[in-house]
Amino acid sequence: MTREAGLVATCTSFAAGEPAHHHLDEALAERGVPARWVCWDDPAVDWASGLVAVRATWDYETRREEFLAWARSVPRLLNGADVFAWNTDKAYLPELAGAGVPVVPTLVVDGEESLPEAIAAFDAAVVKPCVGAGGRGVVLFDGTEGGPADLDESMLGPGPWVVQPLVESVRTEGEGSVFVLAGEVVSAAQKRPAVGEIRVHEMYGGSTVAVPVSEDAAELARRTVAAAERLLGRALDYARVDHLRLADGSLAVSELEVTEPGLYLDVLPGNGPAFADLLAARVRA
Predict the structure, then answer these.
(1) Pairing of strands 161-165, 107-109
(2) β-pairing verdict for 5-10 and 125-129
(3) What gap in Å lies between CA 267 and CA 265, rounded to an integer?
(4) What is the tens place of the pLDDT at every residue in 158-205?
(5) For a designed S-S bond to 118, which of 36, 158, 163, 172 qualifies (C-beta 3.0 to 4.6 A apart)?
(6) What is the pLDDT of residue 143?
């Protein structure tokens, strides 16, 4: 690998690249950027040989400290290890709210003894591990048949946790995503759950479609990224801002993904050239 190369970090489950990665690969080739997909935990990789873009490191939540140690060892890394340390713990959500961003109300719970009180704060509560991805470890407490009548720790992922109200629109409208690359809003998608589900991920029957970027979603995305940049004290190379529609019709941030956000290249192939433009510009900077 030459000094001008790009390394695109993934994990062993997606060793060849994220779904539909050819849209990104072809765009990088067209821009004259030699790049290859490499697993972040591969000891044979020379991480100093190029600029590193984290893309599909989707096993980090069970190895977070190892992942962050690796990120700190990489000389040239988009967004950077400090950003990853902040973003891979969902405790960042109250920080965004404190910075004036509309965020789905979020309580951070460190110990099991505090979970019942936090859950009782909402008519229906969604509990997630602070360090988690892909909908794993998410439990809905809504008092309906088939759900836990009382707290059952065996159903939860490992803590600490965040506790949020169930936003009912997730069952019908789903969750929106807006991509911000190099400071520009470039695309949007809508993720919808299967009937009876609140998790929008494909492994639970969810589906994703491309949608036009609405004015309110774009404004929320810009506002969220700007607030995160103020909190972190640095510009963000890339971000995906996920949002839900509240009962009053307004949008609120459900997640800010600035570590390894899926680009949904299968439904948003244009994200490939857009991310390639970003990577090419940073490689040559």
Answers:
(1) antiparallel
(2) unpaired
(3) 5
(4) 789 999 999 999 999 999 999 999 999 999 999 998 888 888 888 778
(5) 163
(6) 67
